[in-house]
Request: fold
Amino acid sequence: MLKKLLGALLIVVIVLLGVAFMLPRDAHVERSIVVDRPAAAIFPLVNSLKRFNEWSPWSQYDPNVKMSFSGPDAGPGASMHWAGNSKVGTGDQMITESIPDKRVSTDLNFGEMGTSKASWLLSSEGSATTVVWTLDANLGNNPIGRYMGLFMDKMVGPDYERGLAQLKALAEKAPAAADAQPASAPTTSPNAPTS
Reply:
């Protein structure tokens, strides 16, 4: 009886592993919001990891999270390390690309949980701006990671929605007359690929 049970369990494990490697290797999360301010007023809020914490959807999960910053205050090379509770985890984020009033991209390192890329894309529509926040993760050959990839959108999407809502509230709180003038030149980290 025990031999049959172990045999059946082994078959289940083999099937689950086989299915895992047929699942997508990449996961993508994307959310957007329209902010009633020009891109020049929003760009500084996404181009600085220190400012990111003013509207981060995860800032309330652990009020005692430890954060440290290195590199420039904004733009390529600006880095942040955090260590918090189980909801926040531990990781690093570095800005790798910064195109004024249009795009900011970062590399994320979650340690054992792997690496991802995130971007904020800004597109002006009159006096308003559509902000698109994306996350792309390569799940590699980890079967558990590939199963988790199926739920990535449901796990991360609500946080992205909350973060974008907080970004919108922060940007729109400033008087419209105080909106910044558009920035001028794109910059990219010397070690970062451009897209």
